[in-house]
Structures are given as structure tokens and as C-alpha cells.
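Researcher: Please predict.
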Amino acid sequence: MKPCDPEEALQLKYPEPVALAVSYDEQNRRPNIITLGWFMRTSFSPPMCAISVGHTRHSHTTISRGGEFVLVLPSRHQIEAVLHCGTVSGRDHDKFAETGLKALPATAVRPPLIEGAVLALECRVAGTCESGDHTIFIGEVLAGHIAEKPQSPLFSMPDGSIEPLPG
């Protein structure tokens, strides 16, 4: 092993899975979507997962205030929407309207599911952890949903592109 800049080493973690988190924006009376690279399962019992959201992001505010989110693994047919949701702010943009993504009613939380996704996990915030310029939101998974036909999730590549796994 040879020493290197930590940022150089961190670039070698790619490809990594890409997710969306849907929250509800009370102020604008609409759901909001953020593209995420940092998420994981954290517990078997109860089932829990965590997402990491930057302090300056609009979704940080909506998740903090609403206490709920839906973690979504988007499908290969949603690449353009994933890219769009990662480049504009929900403060000023209705991401569902702009991307053509279709919201489906959730069963346990206010934020909706996204039609055509690989999976969706309805979560209630059970705790938070500050991590530098991000907050880790730990969500208890209240309900899960999977695609009718199995699909491959999307991955973020070193060049910033979003791709499905080959095959």
C-alpha cells in the first residue's frame, strides 16, 4: 500500500448504488425527491436504514420537519429523473412534475412511493447523527414494496454518470 490523498482513495469506492429519498414539503404542499449515494441498512430487528443528507439540502429541512421519508431504488428507466433530482433544488422545483415520475400512495407515511422503482421502503425517522456537513437520518422501515418484475438497481460511476449493472 502507498499513501495517497483521502479523496483519491475514496474515489475507488465506485461504482456505488444510487437511491432516491422522497419527503413531504409542507411549505410547498408537495413531495420532494433527493438523489442519494450514501445509504445503508442498519438493523434487522426492527428493520432500519440510514440516509446521509447534506445540511444545505432542501430535503434536509423536509425530512427534519416531517420525520418521514421513503427510500427508493430507482430502475434503469429512471436514469434521467435521477440525474435531474440530483441537480435542482426542491425549494424551487416540483421534481415529480419536471421528471414525469408518478407518485403512488404510501401505506404508512405521507411521502409517496415512485411508480416503476426497483423497491421502496417507507421510513419514520427514529434518530439522527451529525456527520460533518451531513446529517444521517436513521429510519425505522414501516413498510416495503418491490417491483412486479425484478429489476437491476442503478449505480453511480467514478465519472459521475448513473448506470444499471450490465446484464
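Model: The helical segments are 6-10, 58-66, 79-85, 95-99.
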